[in-house]
Amino acid sequence: MKLSLSTLAPPKEPFEIVLVPGITVKVNPPTSLSKTIAEAAANRIVDGIEDSLEICVEAGFAEPSLVDFSDEDFRKGLYQQVLIRELAVGHIISWSGIIDDKTEEPVEVSPDKVRAIMDIPPLGETFFSKLMAHQIKVFAAKKDSGVTAPGTSKKAVAPNTAKDAENKASTAPKEKKD
Questions:
Q1: What tens digit of pLDDT does each residue of 76-114 get?
Q2: pTM of the model
Q3: Where are the alpha helices (DSSP H) in the chain?
Q4: Domain boundaries in the chain?
Q5: Which residue in 27, 55, 100, 164 has a CA-CA distance of 20 to 30 Å to 156?
Q6: Does residue 108 contact residue 56 with C-beta atoms inside 8 Å?
């Protein structure tokens, strides 16, 4: 497999993402650091929600069955939603097509407004897939070019490299058990 540096090079300048016809966001290119920061924030927020809910249940302000954090699917779904919000807050620098219902004026970009917009289906999902498209492309290109996991390959046998060699070289002998 060949990896082309030109097609795998990440974007270096801000670019636009069309979320739906009429709504476009301009974003700074994602980096490993920006993604890690968003992931850390998402983990912190989900943990905070869980802790707050436990306190509310213990104080009698919420029912224990309100949300089930022991359900792994629920936790992963909530994490994904929060991650999309935090990635959007960290990357969106401007937008077009988002207006105030009352004034019909363009809405300024702010963290709270970005989070609210990302909760509208399919805006958050579209944002995430298009923002992370480059990383997905790199992952797909590298998928089949990595080393084999330990224990999954057949016994290795090296080819003859010396002209007069009669036998193929084999792997090191196995350790003898006493």
A1: 999 999 999 999 999 999 999 999 999 999 999 999 999
A2: 0.72
A3: 5-8, 32-59, 72-91, 111-118, 123-131, 133-142
A4: 5-170
A5: 164
A6: no
